[in-house]
Amino acid sequence: MFQWVSDQCLRGGRVRRKGFRLLRKVMLRLGNPTVRIEYFGRTLEVPFSSDLAIHTADFETYNSNLRRLCRFVRSEQGRLRYVDVGANVGDWAVLAEPGPGDSILLVEGYPPFDTLLKRNVAGMSGVHLAENYLSGQAAAVQVAEIPSNATNRLVPGEGRAVQFETLDSVLERHSSATPVGVIKVDAEGFDGRVLAGGRRMLENDNPVVLFEFHPSLWRKAGQDFESVLPGLRKAGYGPLLVYDNQGVLLLSTQLSETDLLRTLIRYARVLSFFYFDLMVFPVSRTDSAARFLESEEAFLNRLPDGDCC
Fold first, then answer.
1. CB 218 within 8 A of CB 265
2. Predicted confidence band at 150 (pLDDT cuts at 50, 70, 90)?
3. Which residue, of 48, 62, 78, 222, has the fewest CB within 10 Å?
C-alpha cells in the first residue's frame, strides 16, 4: 500500500497528484517504511517520508546543479574526485554519475541511512563509504539523532555519545578521493563546522564547494554564516554562485561582497522552509568559474517559462 501511494504521487494530473500527496501525509502517521523510486535511471530505496521523487518531478532544476558541476569538472580534469558529506541514501552519488577513473567518497553518520546508502550505491564504480559524523574538531559529543522528513538533525546535549571526526582526518584514510575536485556538504546546519574541519583539504586541493545555507538549521546548530566567510576567503575562495532551493541560479558574486550576502541572508531568514545552495570556487580557478557560469546561464535559457497557474 505504501509503495502504491508513493507511485501515485507522481502520476496523473495535478489534482490527482495533490490528492495522493495529502493521503501520503496522513499515512505517515501509520509508519515510515522503505519504498522504491526511480531517480535518474537508477532505482533507489528511500523512506516513505522522502520528498526526493516529488521535488524531482515538480522542479526540473532540483539538485541538478551538482550533476552539471560534476560533468564540468570531469571534462576539465579528465576524472572526478568527489566527496559527499551528508550522503543520505545515495541520491547525490547518482547525480555525480561515477565512471571509470573516478573516485567518490560518501560520508554519512546516521546508521539507518547508512543501510540504505550501501544498498543504493552497490555496484557503482569507484564509490567508497565513510560512516562518520563530521565537525570542526575530533571529539566525543552527546547528541540526539532526530529523523525529520527523510533527513537527520542532531541535537547536542542529549541522546547517545557520538564520535565526531574532521573531514581532513577522514580523507587521510581515504586518499583515493584526493585531490578533491568537488565537495558537497549538506549537514543540516553544521555545514560550516564540516568545512572548518577540512581546511587542509580546501587549501591544498582547491575543490569547488557546494553547500547548503538553511538559516533556521544553521541557527539551531549555533552557526553564523558570516563567521564562515573569513575561513573560506583565507583558504583562497572567492567566486560564488547562488542557487535557490529549487536549484535555480539566482546570481553570481564574490565572497568579498558582504553587503549583498547579508541581504541574501536576511531574505532567506524571513521565509519558511527556504534555503540557498552556495557554490564557491577557489580564486585560482576563476576562469573555470566563469566558464561554468556561462554554461549555467545557457542551461537556464533553454528552460521553458514557469507555470504560474
1. no
2. low
3. 78
Alpha helices (H) along 78-220: 91-96, 111-120, 167-173, 191-196, 199-205, 215-220
CATH H-level, domain 63-133+167-302: superfamily:
Vaccinia Virus protein VP39 (3.40.50.150)
Which band of pLDDT confidence, cut at 50, 70 and 90, is reported for residue 143? confident
What pairing do the DSSP bridges indicate for beta strands 182-185 and 208-213?
parallel
Q: Which residues of 163-202 are buried (b: 16+ CB within 10 A; e: fewer)?
A: ebbbbbebbeebeebbebbbbbbbbbbbbbbbbbbbbebb
**Residue in the block written with cell 567566486:** 239
**Dist CA 278 CA 249 (whole Å):** 10
What is the DSSP annotation of 238-286? EEEEEE-TTS-EEEEEETT-HHHHHHHHHHHHTSTT--EEEEEEEGGGH
User: pLDDT of 201-247, one tens digit each?
Assistant: 999 999 999 999 888 888 877 888 888 888 999 999 999 999 998 89
Q: What pTM, to 2 d.p., does this model score?
A: 0.92
Residue 102 grid coordinates? 573516478
93-117 mean pLDDT = 93
216/294 Cα distance (integer angstroms): 32
C-alpha grid cell for residue 18?
495533490
Query: pLDDT by residue (tens digit) across 90-103?
Result: 999 999 999 999 99
| Adjacency order of strands within the sheet including 133-134 | 133-134, 160-165, 139-148, 151-156
Give start-end residues of each CATH 3.40.50.150 domain in the chain: 63-133+167-302
Phi/psi at 21 (5° precision): -70, -35
